[in-house]
Amino acid sequence: DARPRRRAGDMMRSRSAGKHRVPGREDRDLRLRAALEALYARAQDRSLVTPDPLSALYAYGEARDREIAGLVAAALGYGRARAIERSVARALLPMGPHPRAWLDAASRRDLGIAFRGLRHRWTRAADLSALLWGARAACARHGSLGGCFAAHLRPADPDVLPALSGFVREIVASGGARAARVLPDPARGSACKRLLMYLRWMVRRDAVDPGGWKGVDPALLVVPLDVHMHRVCRLLGFTRRRTADLRAAREATARFRRIAPRDPVRYDFALTRPGIRDGWRGKGLPFLSVPARG
Questions:
Q1: What is the predicted pLDDT for the residue at 162?
Q2: 182 and 192 Cβ atoms separated by less than 8 Å
Q3: Residues 232, 280: Cα–Cα separation, whole Å
Q4: Model-level pTM greater than 0.90?
Q5: Helix (H, G, I), strand (E, B), or coil: what is residue 197?
Q6: How does pLDDT run across 166-175, given as a tens digit for each residue?
């Protein structure tokens, strides 16, 4: 009977085809994860941070001080890297080694005096004063900025964006319209790159990100999509959007979550070094040759 022989032959051909199959999505993810992990390990070095505004947070051993300094650094974290570094240092100088205690004791007038003359591109002293006045009120209500953020988290939230919107609205409610100039609300469509960067600093903890907020799951973080990260994500096929907007950030995050479901922004710092650090510039990102689409 020829029928069983044909079936046996079909099975043999199927096994042979399996040995030579085209790598699927799982294979591509594994290869990409290995390449990203190698880059991540290489970038776990604080000497690579400067001129990132993150470096300003390392001076503060306590989370209550670090979260205040980090909010200032994130608010001023736009423009040329060296200019950001100077502006952040100028803003933090009056606060001394314990920004939280300084802020708790400050009046609105004290804030205006402390930051008089400060200017960072379109951010003025009055904007920073309003931001910190709103942050002061949030700390008074919740005990800390981390407590304020956690109060807006809901179990059904797909990521940090709904809580971030509540966090922003609460600070702006006390700080006023000037605070809104430096705290964009994701509910209004802003990509919120600087605030998402701030969350990465405060939620994650490794050799680079100092952490401090224990009530927020890193799995909920969204990639801060600056110009460098947007370029990499487009090259990888993680987003096809030409604009680094919130939709592109969510698309990229969903793809990173496939690779690192518990920590989708794990590779953010490492992936942005070639666009920022002179020593890494021009070397390229060798893992981009890994087929990542799909």
A1: 97
A2: no
A3: 14
A4: no
A5: helix
A6: 999 999 999 9
